[in-house]
Amino acid sequence: MVLLGTLINALLIIVGTIIGRLLKNIPENMKQTVMYAIGLAVTVIGLQMGFESGQFLIVIISLVLGAVIGEWIDLDLQLNRFGQWLESKVGKNKKGENISIAQGFVSATLIFVIGSMAIIGSLDSGLRNDHDLLIVKGLIDGFTSIILATTLGIGVLLSAVPVILYQGTIALFATQISRLIPEEALALFIREMTATGGIMIVAIGLNMIGLTKIRVANLLPGILVVAIVVTIAYQFHLVPLPSK
Fold it and tell me: Which secondary-structure segment (H or E) carries 72?
């Protein structure tokens, strides 16, 4: 079953979120300190991913153009409206919980979707029916969702949907992707997409700590811009390609 690894990954996120919500009733001071700890850890993870870039100019261009597109369509506002609609359906956050569903959704989605494991694991599932990498990723995501859900709320659970759509699409079309996209171009995209997403994850961490109020959702189009810039750079040989 091609989608087995993806479905297990999503299920572990859901289970982790449920466990995290069961652990939410901790003292407010402890919850705040935990939030800061998670924010610091997320910031470090983002920095590590950001330093993977071999062509930081691609990252800068992607972030800037992505921000322009995101602010133009105001993706942050649209997601928050969606979150408010969900909150009206599932009930408002309890007293003391000031994290919106949209914030939990966006933060968790970026953390779970960005990175090489999602792409390589999905390709392994589609090409070789090998789900080991996605199952390992699912275990990591599940544990992470436990921690995130204690502070970011039920919105973390919703990140299972884009995980299924993103990884499932790659797995289903893995054969076509391997035929149409040269290995060097795919490696370049994974590296620069990981770095670009890593900067966004840094922004999430800084927001969680309370140092910034960056509208991270409005940076999300930058991921699509990475694909366009990498395609142009590969076609016209503008950058050295990663070694195989």
Answer: helix 56-73
Any idea of the CA torsion for 181, 160, 85, 91, to the nearest 10 degrees? -170
- 218 DSSP assignment: G
Q: State the greatest distance between any 2 C-alpha atoms of the chain, in Å, as a whole number.
A: 57
Segments of the chain with pLDDT less than 70: 83, 86-87, 89-100, 243-244
Among residues 151, 141, 140, the alpha carbon closest in space to that of 209 is found at: 151
Q: Taking the model in full, what pTM does it have?
A: 0.83
Q: Find tokens 């597109």 and name the residue.
A: 69
Cβ atoms of 52 and 181 within 8 Å: the answer is: no
Distance of CA 38 to the CA centre of its chain: 15
Closest of 17, 3, 5, 15 to residue 136, by C-alpha: 5
With contact defined as beta carbons under 8 Å apart, do 165 and 211 qualify?
no
* Burial bucket for residue 176 (CB in 10 Å: 0-12, 13-18, 19+): exposed
